[in-house]
Amino acid sequence: MEIKGSCLCGAVRFAISGPPRMMGTCLCSRCRKLGTSTIVFVERDQFTLTAGEGEIETVVPVPPFTYHRSFCRACGTSLGEPLSPETSFPINAQCLDDDPGVRNTFHEHEGDRPVWAEG
Ligand SMILES: [Zn+2]
Ligand SMILES: [Zn+2]
Q: How many structural domains comprise the chain?
């Protein structure tokens, strides 16, 4: 089962060779503002960037924050961490074009949930 994904403009494209390890939503203000609240965690050996590596811009956070976040330079879509050197890394679930086979059952930083967000 191959799961495809892409940014809004289609410059950045990727494929995941099987169901991601998990899907979750982080409600902290950083993830929400970056547009990567809901992510899937993929393994390096199941993830292939099929187009647009040169279009990916990465924002390196000021310590103590450590998570790098990448965007498509052409359209601004928040991608997660497709260029991460880690063996497992987050990809923005909103970029998925196919059913990933996992469901969103995990929520983190519930205390930061905005008052307007549904439970
Ligand atoms: Zn794009
Ligand atoms: Zn967060």
A: 1
